[in-house]
Amino acid sequence: MVQPAQELTYEKQQNAEVTELKSEKKPITIFEMPILWFGIFGIITVISLYTGNLPGGMIGSLLLMIVFGELLGWMGDHTPVVKTFLGGGAIVAIFGAAFMVYAGWLPDQPVTSMTEFMKGGGFLNFYIAALITGSILGMNKQILVKVGLRYFLPIFGAVVGAIAFASLLGAIAGFSLRDAVLVITMPIMGGGMGAGAVPMSQVYSEMMGNDPSYYISMLVPALALGNVFAIVLASMLNLLGKKVPSLTGEGQLIQGFHYQEEKQTYDIQKMGIGLLAAITFFAVGGLLGDLIPLHPYALMIIVVAMAKIADVIPKSIVEGASQWYKFVANNWTLALLFGIGVAYTDLNTVLEALTVPYILTVFGVVLGAIIGAGLLGKLVGFYPIESAITAGLCMANMGGTGDVAVLSASRRMELMPFAQISSRLGGALILLLAGIIIPLLT
Question: Going residue by residue through the chain (442 aa), what tens digit of pLDDT does each one get?
Fold first, then answer.
């Protein structure tokens, strides 16, 4: 049946309106607020900073860290090459802060205040407690039941492959086994900045001496370079899959598995419960640290993981921990990274680390992760390319932002649930492993 001309005209008008709405650009926002209002907050912050009227302690430190962290993060996430290959806003927030200190753009008093807030004030531990508790308790059991312990074999293969290749290429490049494994391999395989390099620097400091800033300045370049190689090699694995179809499931790790993320209703009271759970588990790690010769972070991970596996934590606490973790990660990550740049990152040490032998060893870490995860993944019935991408490259990138970049480069965004297992539990595994092997290599 032919539509009347009036109906066709109306339909064209509707289509034109829809097209016009789609073509409208989204307003520019920073920290999810209109850029005008963020600019107002930023101007007030800058005036307070350079007139000597910035509040002391936590208030002034958080104000600076949030405003400058979010601004630098936004710049990094909107700079083409940086956002695609170098980790985006996370890297810019860290090195932007480090450069501001190096160049003398930040007055001494706010730098001292932020350093004290990050170290003596415990903000770093506060963030890490939320991250560990919420990420592990918030893991979806459907994934764990379906994939089971099989998935941890390719993760183990990735770690072994990364250590083996890094040790080999590191020896050729002139690195000791200790430096190749602890300084280069572990941070790359550790799940990003917040869950990997940052707590790892604390562990190294307490177990090997030196200030955490010494280790951060060496771990961060490895993390950034590892992220670059992970993204580039993800694209190459996609091309390999097109050339050799038998190696890939075209986005499926195993046949017949489909996962849909559960939706949560966010609740302020539950977030409060999650806060209490996070700091309590952190305290448990400290208590056990007096009895067991492992780092409190590692013990905290073990306790939270055991509680998750045993399914003894009430749903309200699990949801609260997950929601509190997401609140902290969404709102304070860039602020924390800016603080890391100020308090923990020595730009001179970073620049001295970027040598050809260093870059070669980092490449060995990522290549070893691919080979180890692909081979052991095939042994347990996974497609080698998908296994190499999720259990290998998503261990070797910069956590959540790295997962998105790697899966985008490999054209396999549907693998995100498995990437999250690698970034969350895999990162926790590396932190635990670092605490165990330090005494063996020092």
Answer: 444 444 444 444 555 544 444 445 678 999 999 999 999 999 999 999 999 999 989 999 999 999 999 999 999 889 988 877 666 787 788 889 989 999 999 999 999 999 999 888 888 889 888 888 887 888 766 665 666 678 889 999 999 999 999 999 999 989 888 888 888 888 888 866 655 677 777 778 877 777 777 777 777 788 878 888 888 899 889 989 999 999 999 888 886 665 555 677 789 999 999 999 999 999 999 999 889 876 677 788 788 888 888 889 999 999 999 999 889 988 998 998 899 889 877 777 677 777 889 899 999 999 999 999 999 999 988 999 999 999 999 888 877 667 877 887 888 877 876 786 787 666 678 877 877 887 777 6
**H-helix segments, 194-211:** 198-208
Distances (CA, A) of 415 to 40, 209, 384: 40, 40, 13
Residue ranges of the alpha helices (H) in 24-122? Answer: 35-50, 57-77, 80-85, 89-102, 108-118
By the 10 Å C-beta count (0-12 exposed, 13-18 middle, 19+ buried), 372 is classed as buried
Q: What is the 3-state secondary structure (H, E, C) of 325-352?
A: HHHHHHHHHHHHHHHHHHHCCCHHHHHH
Q: Which residues contact 144 (CB under 8 A, 6 or more apart)?
A: 421
Reading the block at residue 407, the tokens are 């899966």
**Length, in residues, of the chain:** 442
Q: Tell me if 403 sits within 8 A of 395, measured CB to CB.
A: no
Q: How far is CA 50 from the centre of its chain?
A: 33
How far, in Å, CA of 160 to CA of 369, rounded? 8
Rama region for 251: left / alpha / beta (φ>0; ψ in -120 to 50; rest):
left
Give residue 19's identity as a one-letter amino acid code: T
> Does the predicted TM-score (pTM) go above 0.85?
no
Number of C-alpha atoms within 13 angstroms, CB side, residue 245?
0
- Cα separation, 78 vs 88, in Å, equals 8
Residue 219's alpha-carbon distances to 193, 339, 365, in angstroms, are 9, 16, 13
The rounded distance, in Å, linking the Cα atoms of 437 and 439 is 5
End-to-end CA, the chain: 83
Give the whole-angstrom CA distance, residue 382 versus residue 148.
12
Query: Rounded to an integer, what distance in angstroms lies between the CA atom of residue 22 and that of residue 303?
Result: 48
Q: How far apart are CA 259 and CA 262, in angstroms?
A: 9
The answer to whether 134 and 322 have CB atoms below 8 angstroms apart is yes
Distances (CA, A) of 358 to 191, 349, 370, 396: 20, 13, 19, 16
- Quickly count: other Cβ atoms within 10 Å of residue 251's Cβ: 17
